[in-house]
């Protein structure tokens, strides 16, 4: 005679795995959407593109390359840093920014062609 509770438990485990996979997928999709929202400004795309080419730059270096006011560059860096699109490292009085997130790199490469 079959015991139904065991069968139910198996189904529940499979369902939990399915929901875990959906949760992982939802997280990835939400993160991708967040990255796209943050990068939806031409200046931010330019900043990230330069950081990917040169690995790490500070505000002054980015300002010279992009020919933008320092305050504009700083505001965009701050927004991207808050959304974890960029990482930063302080060396003395300077802060160097770079793109470490694999998903951000992939997204930018797709967008920039």
From TrEMBL:
Record keyword Transcription present: yes
InterPro entries on file: ArsR-like_HTH, HTH_ArsR_DNA-bd_dom, Metal_resp_trans_reg, WH-like_DNA-bd_sf, WH_DNA-bd_sf
Stored PROSITE patterns: HTH_ARSR_2
Gene Ontology MF: a single term: DNA-binding transcription factor activity
SMART domains for this protein: HTH_ARSR
Domain of life: Bacteria
Name of protein: ArsR family transcriptional regulator
Organism: Bacillus thuringiensis subsp. israelensis
């Amino acid at each position: 005679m079959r015991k139904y509770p065991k069968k139910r438990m198996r189904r529940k485990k499979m369902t939990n795995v399915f929901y875990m996979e959906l949760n992982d997928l939802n997280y990835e999709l939400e993160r991708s959407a967040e990255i796209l929202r943050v990068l939806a400004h031409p200046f931010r795309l330019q900043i990230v593109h330069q950081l990917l080419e040169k690995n790490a730059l500070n505000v002054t270096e980015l300002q010279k390359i992009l020919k933008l006011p320092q305050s504009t560059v700083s505001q965009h860096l701050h927004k991207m840093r808050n959304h974890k699109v960029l990482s930063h490292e302080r060396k003395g009085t300077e802060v160097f920014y770079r793109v470490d997130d694999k998903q951000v790199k992939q997204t930018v490469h797709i967008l920039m062609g």
